[in-house]
TrEMBL record, chains A, B, C, D:
<dbReference type="InterPro" id="IPR013457">
    <property type="entry name" value="Rhamnose_iso-rel"/>
</dbReference>
<dbReference type="InterPro" id="IPR036237">
    <property type="entry name" value="Xyl_isomerase-like_sf"/>
</dbReference>
<protein>
    <submittedName>
        <fullName>L-rhamnose isomerase</fullName>
        <ecNumber>5.3.1.14</ecNumber>
    </submittedName>
</protein>
<keyword id="KW-0464">Manganese</keyword>
<dbReference type="InterPro" id="IPR050337">
    <property type="entry name" value="L-rhamnose_isomerase"/>
</dbReference>
<keyword id="KW-0413">Isomerase</keyword>
<keyword id="KW-0479">Metal-binding</keyword>
<dbReference type="GO" id="GO:0008740">
    <property type="term" value="F:L-rhamnose isomerase activity"/>
</dbReference>
Amino acid sequence: MTAGSSKDAVKAALTTQALETPSWAYGNSGTRFKVFAQPGVPRTPQEKLDDAARVHAHTGVAPTVALHIPWDRVDDYGALADHAAKRGLRLGTINANVFQDDDYRLGSVTNPDPAVRRKAVAHLLECVDIMDATGSKDLKLWFSDGTNYPGQDDLRDRQDRLSEALRTVYDRLGDDQRMLLEYKLFEPAFYATDVPDWGTAYAHCLKLGPKAQVVVDTGHHAPGTNIEFIVATLLREGRLGGFDFNSRFYADDDLMVGAADPFQLFRIMYEVVRGGGLATGASGAPGVAFMLDQCHNIETKIPAIIRSVMNVQEATAKALLVDAEALSDAQRRGDVLAANGALMDAYNTDVRPLLAEVREESGLAPDPLRAYERSGWQEQIVEDRVGGVQAGWGA
Amino acid sequence: MTAGSSKDAVKAALTTQALETPSWAYGNSGTRFKVFAQPGVPRTPQEKLDDAARVHAHTGVAPTVALHIPWDRVDDYGALADHAAKRGLRLGTINANVFQDDDYRLGSVTNPDPAVRRKAVAHLLECVDIMDATGSKDLKLWFSDGTNYPGQDDLRDRQDRLSEALRTVYDRLGDDQRMLLEYKLFEPAFYATDVPDWGTAYAHCLKLGPKAQVVVDTGHHAPGTNIEFIVATLLREGRLGGFDFNSRFYADDDLMVGAADPFQLFRIMYEVVRGGGLATGASGAPGVAFMLDQCHNIETKIPAIIRSVMNVQEATAKALLVDAEALSDAQRRGDVLAANGALMDAYNTDVRPLLAEVREESGLAPDPLRAYERSGWQEQIVEDRVGGVQAGWGA
Amino acid sequence: MTAGSSKDAVKAALTTQALETPSWAYGNSGTRFKVFAQPGVPRTPQEKLDDAARVHAHTGVAPTVALHIPWDRVDDYGALADHAAKRGLRLGTINANVFQDDDYRLGSVTNPDPAVRRKAVAHLLECVDIMDATGSKDLKLWFSDGTNYPGQDDLRDRQDRLSEALRTVYDRLGDDQRMLLEYKLFEPAFYATDVPDWGTAYAHCLKLGPKAQVVVDTGHHAPGTNIEFIVATLLREGRLGGFDFNSRFYADDDLMVGAADPFQLFRIMYEVVRGGGLATGASGAPGVAFMLDQCHNIETKIPAIIRSVMNVQEATAKALLVDAEALSDAQRRGDVLAANGALMDAYNTDVRPLLAEVREESGLAPDPLRAYERSGWQEQIVEDRVGGVQAGWGA
Amino acid sequence: MTAGSSKDAVKAALTTQALETPSWAYGNSGTRFKVFAQPGVPRTPQEKLDDAARVHAHTGVAPTVALHIPWDRVDDYGALADHAAKRGLRLGTINANVFQDDDYRLGSVTNPDPAVRRKAVAHLLECVDIMDATGSKDLKLWFSDGTNYPGQDDLRDRQDRLSEALRTVYDRLGDDQRMLLEYKLFEPAFYATDVPDWGTAYAHCLKLGPKAQVVVDTGHHAPGTNIEFIVATLLREGRLGGFDFNSRFYADDDLMVGAADPFQLFRIMYEVVRGGGLATGASGAPGVAFMLDQCHNIETKIPAIIRSVMNVQEATAKALLVDAEALSDAQRRGDVLAANGALMDAYNTDVRPLLAEVREESGLAPDPLRAYERSGWQEQIVEDRVGGVQAGWGA
């Protein structure tokens, strides 16, 4: 978006925005203290897609769904892709899971035991096979690997093992496939995490090659970290693969994106727009992937996801509305207050009417939450989805 | 401990030290990502006591065991107390649990629904009944209550509800029973916790009366909090009920106490000694309760608890070795380096030989970890405890 | 403000809002690395008042000015009050300063040296004398006292000394005078601060009596602290004396209030409104004092203060606009998303038009910043205030 | 150091250790609230060197002194080097200063004004000239550059400007000269710092070439950052240029190294030893530079620096004492407690007797602090250094 974007240009950009919702957010989640089950939660990957289709139907900007293997393992991924297609969806990023097997107590790809490492790498390679089957373009790798106690393992050896595993997987990727490497400060590792920050992820990606990109999960940083700086830097380096959006007041709280600090989300989206990241994500080209990764522990899941999508839209709309010319002019003059004011003018704008317009012009109801409520879907799934095992982490 | 403590006085103080280990630390625990089961873990409250008895046998300073209701619910608490007594143990603090029922999704004693509040209070009152049966003196209350989203509930109404519940329980306490109120910054609540800091716990205790005391869990603070200052302040106010010891690098990591920041543990124990808290705890009088509250997610549980007990002993020994006269003299002179040096001299001392002496004079092996290893207990329980359901959070 | 406030009621509340600007914010400030001097900065307390009068003239809600002794020491405080009155201002809170004398290297009222303590207390008593002369109602006490190294001084002795000093000053207060005790986590003390948190300030105030109240500086907390919870709690306890408003991304950054986290400021103002704190502050009665305490290190000072006042107004307006009935109803039903949504609806509203109306109805220009810019005052002071010594910390 | 280091090998490594003390630590420093002047503080660069010579005389491991330009600007750097040499010292790292001129209010090398950027780069180039004159090998670059408010300047443009400036300076370096790039989370910039983390510094260094290396200041991280992980990673990447040692409880407190968290310092030195960083630093080859960067705001400066040197020595000694074979064996077996125990065994060792031996074998007194005290130097400088302007930041 350039200076002086017309309202039409803003609306056009908002129309083409595409977010990816995660299959696991439709299932149960919780903390180590308790997982509160909710009525109507999906029992199968198909039912997760059914719910995701409602989010897309009401918002118009959530056409893809991320899968988590093995939680979404099915016999026939082609059939699953068909199930999605019939509901107007596509299967998106494949998320590997190497943290829920007893073998991974001391790590997966960085485990001191080579047999465990081989098992973990085999799972990652299987995920690429699944990508081939689903047509997914991105493999997202988050490793819970790390140590809880100083001395528990050798920090450097673990980097060597990580490097070797990533290389093996990278070499298996197809031409149009990417590896998205996620970092996280802590949890479940409580002393040292093997990919704790963007610098570590970036260094590994650099060595791997252009198909390796960094993922920014907005809840994975130390207190006080300026996340939008990281976003701007990774875009400048051509290494921002995407986001895992959520929000937090403390640690990796996984609250609805924009719920804890909407101004931060705006600043992030401003840097995305500034760095050209929105355009790439909106096109079909491999650009910045805008994914949600949240836990709706106590709130109803589908409307929480709709709300999250709307929060990202609102932050994006505000970012697009920044008067780039006024901003740039004040920055060049060194007028601190005017430059800050130019940014705040956009932030302080109530963009909800604009987004209502965008939706109505696309044939959608102006208020997705109200539309979902009126659709009766929630009552239906509560009634229908009785029996079976509710989806959740580990299922 | 006063200035110029003789070695004998230090050893005497160390001999009378008493720590309480938590029944749940012998069972499985984990993070929201995974609970790694360990072989040999107890299946019953009785087996937890059997393990706790080994910790006491090798260290000599862990004579009591905290129970968690309902995890340790039994039909006959008198029989459970007998089981403990036969192994040289006593049943200690009763820990209430109002966070694992589906009804508590939006809180227990602060829930907006009065029916849920009544249920929670009933559980707390049941815990006092259990205290009567076990002879436990302390009721420990930790509430997971809080909110995840701004606006979710009224912060002030929740304080009113909390206040009412605490009053009901307080009034039920016997003359020699106490209520220990624990605070925690966050988790599982991610926006506002109803008892988030020592100030809130203290304000409630003040209103309740002298039998209400504050518990300091060393992992429950915001980054940068000076915990020993809180300890000194609560002792000065006569409101330090006890500790839940553990350690952390990030959040409430629940690592072995002393593992993450042994210097901090020393400073805490120094303030305990300075404020007269060790004497009270060591006597039978209601004083400062020294409890462990940890999660041995990946390390073997019994030796981890032995190690934790030793870490507290070592920190205590160093605190007792501070040359109070030299310290006080330097402080009065305003000699910053000398005063800091007096404290560091004690910290830099290797107290392991002294503690080995203390143990040998008590008829114990000098190295409890080695003694446990040689005892064959670990191999025995791995062999014996097959089948059944391993204890853990929720079981 | 109660449920369903009419627009008129909101406007009335906004009209009666009163903020206090600090004399020192008009002078130079900086970091330990550099104080950047700005042209036109006041050289005298009188010139600071002249600038403050411009802020009040354009906003209509900043009628009082806080003084800092000795920075604003004058021979004739009556004359200074007259100077203020002629410009439509009143002299507000008196801020004591016991941190800039070489004697205070190891503390002021908590210094191990009794002679230094006597000197510090004498200064505090002098400040009460000045209050008598200026008609100020509030004495604000912030102590930089603390220690940099463990062992440097005895934490508990320092509390005893603090307690004694506060008692002496408290007993000197007139019937309509208050003591506002401020807490701060760290800086300039880097190990232990003697009043580090609200709990410590509260405990001292409780013992002193009803004229002792706690001040919340929004930049004085550990990362992750829920400030609005503290505000709600202190209001519930009847001990919230006032605010020192500013904002921060990291530590005590002293940026313009609302600049770093406008959503947090809104949540704070919501709790103020919810707890009845706005009404008291707006009346003449001793209520919650809304003060700014900021450092405009790099931005032009007067417009920065105007902007800060506007930010508080906007947050207040949004807080007043919360549909209390809808919120309360959703909270009672346990509808997490609806309750959060009710709060967010108010936050997402663009209240700038409403505030423009409020100003115009009071005979002010709708945009205070533009009005200030057009007034020519800035050019005037840059031209006039040449020579002399610019005001700043320490002058 | 390899597994099973003999005591002799440990002592040899300790003997060859070399630390650099910073000229500015001998002068006055403080916080934004107050700089407390101390008697006897140097007035000239020469007097700083005189003091530094005392530190080296008593410790034997502090042979070089870092200079800060312009604080240590002299007419004849050759003469200054001679002054140093006569006292057994060498001039070390040259520290550029582009943060104390009024022109740098909005940045130095990243300032939006190209004229300011040129001025800043000219200063950096002058520093290389000084290196040529002093024989210094390392240019240390810390930039205070950043912004205080969102929108104030363009984050990405500032990276471009930074990149250009660094390139110009890098190209000017001689064959045996290095650029050490330091990062810092915040202060004095309070929104975005232009080099906020190791990742940013690393990315710039990578592009510049092998003579560009990253400096780790132990006080420049977000809360919770695992610094030893960064150390291990940078060593693995061949990009660890050196340390600025100090310690902190909160932000960039600049306390004596090892004072706040001695266990962290040990873990850092362990990774240095593990990664081969000690050997390079100890030899004359360009390796890891071990520098102090501290502020002795309230404690006497020379003994504080001696204490700091001793703290680094003690941490190094403990790191060297780790039984690498036992550690590695336990790590390979996945024995968490044994591996942690192997590290802790070394940490819990009292190494003061060993260091006393090392000193005595080098002809030094066993206790450097006591030796300094007895030397009479402190009384001498207090008596002699009267009049003139004491050195400090800005002088």
